[in-house]
Amino acid sequence: MIRYVIGVVIVLHGLVHLWFVVLARGLVEYKPEMGWSGRSWLFTGLIGDPATRILASILLLLVTVALSAGGIGFLIDQQWARPVLIVSALASAIVLILFWDGSPQLIVQKGLIGLLIDAAIVAGLLIWP
User: With a threshold of 0.90, does the pTM exceed it?
Assistant: First the structure.
């Protein structure tokens, strides 16, 4: 039973990344209380805002697919799910860090909980029998 709960939570965590894609693509009107602005402390200054948003969208979509597929694989007890989830959770954490705007304001909305979930996925998979 716990495997099913964890698998569903991982799939949902993967799908939450789509919200950041929506924000990066400007598909909804940005409001400051949403938190994530689509700006990056690293990339915005180097490649500009439009390219940063495109890069973020691509990477976030890849993470969405990988985490969702890995979560489904975990749910149905596939051997390939563990390495896929470890790599995709690490990738998710890296993307969240790289595309953070550098401001501590609204840090929860900017992905702190997602970062903690990624850490829990990696830690859990490394100790799960």
Answer: yes
Residue 41 phi/psi, 5-degree rounding, is: -65, -25
Tell me whether residue 59 is exposed, middle or buried, using C-beta atoms within 10 angstroms of its C-beta: 0 to 12, 13 to 18, 19 or more.
Answer: buried
Cα 30 to Cα 7: distance, rounded to the nearest angstrom: 31
The CA–CA distances, whole Å, from 71 to 2, 19, 26 equal 13, 18, 28
Q: Which two tokens stand for residue 38?
A: 């689509």
List own/partner pairs for 59-63 with CB under 8 A and 24 or more apart: 59/91, 59/95, 59/99, 60/17, 60/18, 60/20, 60/21, 60/24, 60/95, 61/17, 61/18, 61/21, 62/91, 63/14, 63/17, 63/88, 63/91, 63/92, 63/95
pLDDT of 79-119, one tens digit each?
999 999 999 999 999 999 999 999 999 999 999 999 999 99
